[in-house]
Amino acid sequence: MFFSGVSSKLKSIAGRDAVLDKHEDLMLYEYDGSLARGEPKYVVFPQTTQQVSEIVKLAKREGLAIVPRGAGTGLSGGSIARQGGIVLAFARMNRILEIDLPNLRATVQPGVVNLDLSGALTPHGFYFAPDPSSQKACTIGGNVAENSGGPHTLAYGVTVNHVTGLEVVLPEGRTVQLGGAAASSAGYDLTGFFVGSEGTLGIATAITVKITRLPESVATLLAIYDDVQAAGNTVVALTSAGITPAAIEMLDGWTLRAVEASVHAGYPIDSAAVLLIELEGLREAVEEQAELVSQLCRKCSAREVRRARDESERQLLWKGRKTAFGAIGRISPSYYVQDGVIPRTRVPETLRKIDEISRKYSLTIGNIFHAGDGNLHPLILFDARDADQTQRTLDAGREILEFCIGIGGSITGEHGVGMEKQDLMCTLFSDSELEVMRRLRNCFNPDSLLNPQKMLPSPRTCREAVSPGHPSLDGPSVHSEVTLQ
Amino acid sequence: MTHGVTMQVGMHSRFETLLGSNRILAEPTVLERYAIEGISPRVVLQPENAEEISAILRVCNEQQWTVVPFGSGTHQEVGRVPEAVDVVLSTEKLNKVEAYDPGDLTISLEAGVRVANAVAACTEYQQLLPIEGEGGTIGGALALAQSGPLRVGFGGLRDFCIGISFVTGDGVSGRGGGRVVKNVAGYDLMKLFIGSYGSLGVITSANFKVFPMPRQTITLICEFRLLADAIRLRDVLLTSPLSALACEIISPAATEYLRDWEPRDPDHWAPETPKSSSDTPWKLALRFAGSDRVLQRVRRELSSSISSDLNGEEETELWRQIGMFENRLVARHRNAMILHLEAPIAQSQTALEAAQAAAMDYNFVAAVIGRATISSFVIGFLPLAVDPPGVMQYAAAASDFRSRLSRSASAVAVRCPREAKQHFDIWGSTPTDLELMQKIKRALDPGGILNRGRFLVG
Predict the structure, then answer these.
(1) Is B435 on the interface with A (CB under 8 A)?
(2) pLDDT bracket for residue A329 (50, 70, 90)
């Protein structure tokens, strides 16, 4: 049938031009920034909370899965329609509803692009602090779902530290309010609990965030090293010395050369690593800290410490960092980015371990870190057309994350678990701990029709993950199910 | 009551199997010390680890024995009067620092560790754990979402608690977060448990970010005849590049509670009404950290507003006094009602004026301190010495005050005479959906045994 019943019902809810149901259109919505794919049956572009609620009720009646989607920049498969169903795309709910300067809040629809909010706030002297590298495209709704971070979360915190209120449509269709404009309120902090739930609890349709005043002064330093270990040692030294820059980013030699070849950010291509360190705040404090940081970097064997002379130089240095993934895309058919987190005192040994893993699997691994908070982004290069290489890539990725867990770290600092790291959740958490999380999901999403098979592994996946001798038949394991680009 | 007695004996021996006999307290005089709002428990248990807590809760859940998680007992009068108190589950023996990595600026603490001890451990390394409420325990601070002046500079517990372990009402071990400062694996259970007042589970340990200790601070005192003028300076600060570590507003009536005071036996002495005269000012106490040059700049920018400045011991003393404000109110006025107000920033002034007005209408005097830049306040409703308020006037004052607040504000009566509690809802309204809260409570405490009847939902 050309128009299925569901399709015409969706059209009557959201409008004739707000529904996609043809394969060639749906293909554009089968992927995100991760390696996973899954084609939905329908894509709908709601324009109001009311429509979202009606669509959700329809999906429940029809037994269809619902997968919310912002800009599709996610790196863990959070917006992949794993069971087909309906993708709820928020491109048309992209209005800033209110800029409330007296309360230092803004309320936005979920489809507002991260950088657009900051753009609207800048004339008033404010911005939205969480700054994922994809901030030119990614949406605040997506940031809420994934609890996104970014380079400057070192000083300002991740998304959850900036959200005070939410309007949420629950999988049953009911619209509820969580929190509001006040910094906190009586009862459970369901706002905080909702952020980072990866679309498994409800659909945020309005988001109230804190706005942050623009810093008076910014200094951006580039510390250049001939030895990657020395750069790692600098991170430990800065943290221990109690210096808290707004951002400390690290790129290793291989990665910075790839970046240079693409954007000419000004990273010396003969170096083994660079640290990009940003200091923000009161002019006097920034000057003093810049001096202190430079001294410390040199003490830790930095070959040179440069300081961006003006805003355009600063922007260029950051462009190198923020477009690094794209730069890698130019030189490798595929790459697999990890998001492990480690205690900051363990940066140097983790670098050694990644190097070891790279040799063991004969794969090139570039390192790009939010070093200041121990959040690693090793980039494993491979060719997805080569099945053997692909398997080695997945194994290497897994080994890196297992190492992170082993030294007291985590499998994801800001990208989310999604469908990519579900089986590692069984390593990170015990059965009973996962059981508690499942109970909580069921309070919101009892039939798991909302973003099914994400974040929480099924109890069965965990049993299989600990006994590798029994390969999964249909279980949602990354190894068997991920279709690679 | 033969049945009850046998049941008790049966439970006692089950607890003994789990804990041995040394960590079970059942002498009537001891039980009285652990009474919650006048209700003595049947038994006090002192488990040493999460496994024991889990075993205890399984037994209690199965037998429908109610449980009150208990830290140091400094805030057990918060909440509604419990429906029943069978077991007080003390975290006293969970008192270890599990790990402290000064180089990574993180610390892991068992729930029964005293806040003061944890803070002291960090101070040794010139680091700051910005948890307030020195008399309490880590678990208690989390359960209450304890906050104080430092919340302005370092955020609240929800911002720097990075991991939590707990046992649910039916004995299942749960955990959220971890030991690293950035982590999005799994649901953020820290947020759920912070401020849950022991209604969802027993917190067994938690991990925190710590901060470098500021090397040098000053505190500037600014005085104002009118609240509006204090709020105006607050607004200037909010848009200026200066960032304060603390920004505490002090109402005229609050002033006299910020100095040491000899407590007198409240049973034999009617406390005086605070006697702020019309010339006692509103104050803002602003604390800044930084180098000499930074602090010079701060002074320069605020010069027209500063009445005095404090540093060294004098400064430490002021903040110590502010930290003890609530205790002082209660020590002097046994019948004080204390509300915690969280309001949108732009509503600070109207909310505080509403408190003053409501207090006056019902025979109280309002004394306020709080975090001006985040609009989070502690409001003492202090009974007049002559013609003190009757029981119903507590309820009336609280509802009158709340009726003048916007929907997104919360005003929780954290302390209130027991007799008055049954006449109004000490929790008040919340913008957050109650049905969801109810479901969550049932999911983690299916038997409804934890702090039964005390919390907003349950």
Answers:
(1) yes
(2) confident
Nearest Cα to Cα of residue A314 among A282, A288, A277, A342: A277
Sequence-distant (6+) residues with CB within 8 A of A403 are: A340, A350, A353, A357
* CATH number of the domain to which B129 belongs: 3.30.465.10
Domain presence at residue B64: yes
Q: Does domain A216-322 have CATH number 3.40.50.1370?
A: no
Structure tokens at A38: 């899954």
The interface residues of chain B toward chain A in range 80-109, judged by CB-CB distance below 8 A, are 101-106
Claim: this prediction has a pTM higher than 0.80: yes
Lowest mean pLDDT among A110-124, A281-295, A466-480: A466-480
**Rounded CA separation B8/B143 (Å):** 29
A454: which chain B residues are within 8 Å (Cβ-Cβ)? Answer: none
* Domain match, B53 and B156 both: no
- Domain holding B295, by residue range, is 217-421
Flag if A417 and B428 touch (Cβ within 8 Å).
no
Calculate mean pLDDT across residues A180-205: 97
The distance of B362 to chain A (nearest Cα, Å) reads: 24
Count of CB atoms situated within 10 Å of the CB of B377: 23
Min Cα distance B243 → chain A (Å) is: 8
Please judge whether B184 and A416 are an interchain contact, meaning their C-beta atoms are less than 8 angstroms apart: yes
ipTM above 0.90, yes or no: yes
Distance in angstroms (rounded) separating the CA atoms of residues B178 and B293 = 38
A177 touches chain B (CB under 8 A): yes
Determine whether domain A96-213 maps to CATH 3.30.465.10: yes
pLDDT for residue A2: 47
Tell me, yes or no, if B179 comes closer than 8 A to chain A by beta carbon. Answer: yes
Contact between A183 and B175 using a beta-carbon 8 Å cutoff: no
- What is the rounded CA–CA span in Å between residue A9 and residue A303? 65
B175 with A176: Cβ contact below 8 A:
no
Contacts of B376 in chain A (CB under 8 A): 183-184
Percent of chain B at pLDDT exceeding 90: 88
Q: What pLDDT digit, counting tens, does each position of A141-158 carry?
A: 999 999 999 999 999 999
User: Residue B57's domain is classified under what CATH number?
Assistant: 3.30.43.10
